Amino acid sequence: VAMPLDELATRLSISTAEVEGIERRGVPDEDGNLGLFRVGRVLGAEKHPNADRLQLCHVDVGEGEPRQIVCGAWNFGPGATVAVALPGAVLPGGLQLEQRKVRGELSDGMILAEDEVELGTDHSGIMVLPETEPGTPLADVLPLVEEILLVEATGNRPDLLSMYGLAREIAALYDLELAPLPGDDPEPAGDEPVDVTIEDFEGCPRYIGRLFRNVDIG
User: In 3-state terms, the chain is what percent helix, strand and coil (to 5)?
Assistant: First the structure.
């Protein structure tokens, strides 16, 4: 369900917890910048003639003619689907890419690792994507732009310190169906029920206990 983020922030502030602000992260979304981030298919990749640690790649980005791009990662090869930023693109942090020569060979763009678009911290290799049509806007495939609510939970609402807890709150506010909690509980190793007796149903209508063995405290 899509809802204006300003409306959601106001509703949460009134009913639940203080929303300190809305933070925008990822690729700048101004002046058509997102259009310079595209899906590419590597047509050819070989060692750079003047640098042992660099690859010289030819990448189809949906323009008819492939672009030559120099890349320092080796976790892909011909046929790979990759994320590409074209010259003129502005990365998170403000760096603007330019067509340039790297060790004597033209590099007409950048093949992206996840940290270069703030999708993670990994810089050990570039992102290899599921097979997608070259030239597809990268924003259609990856969440390049994110708006994040900064919620300050009060001491009596520790449930709001988790993403699922906040989702549960929003589902209640807007009368939406809540998705199941992700993950699975471990299966009981034996038949050892925990006996719980509630002596004051008004003060404590529900109390749950579960036994865990072989747990290291650390």
Answer: 15, 30, 55
Token pair of 168, please? Answer: 């549960």
What tokens does 28 get?
């700048």
Give the pLDDT mean for 106-117.
96
Written as six digits, the tokens of 141 are: 């495939």
Q: Are 55 and 48 in contact (CB under 8 A)?
A: yes
Residues linked to residue 128 through DSSP beta bridges, in sequence order: 82
Tens-digit pLDDT profile for residues 40-85: 999 999 999 999 999 999 999 999 899 999 999 999 999 999 999 9
- Rounded-to-integer distance, Cα 65 and Cα 160, Å: 51
Is 91:47 a contact under the CB 8 Å cutoff? no
Cα distance between residue 117 and residue 28, in whole Å:
10
Greatest Cα pair distance in the chain: 80
**Which residue matches tokens 């997608």?**
132
pTM of the predicted model as reported, rounded to 2 decimal places: 0.71
At residue 214 the predicted structure's pLDDT band, cuts being 50, 70 and 90, is confident
Strand-pair partners of 216: none
Return the structure tokens found at 61: 């980005």
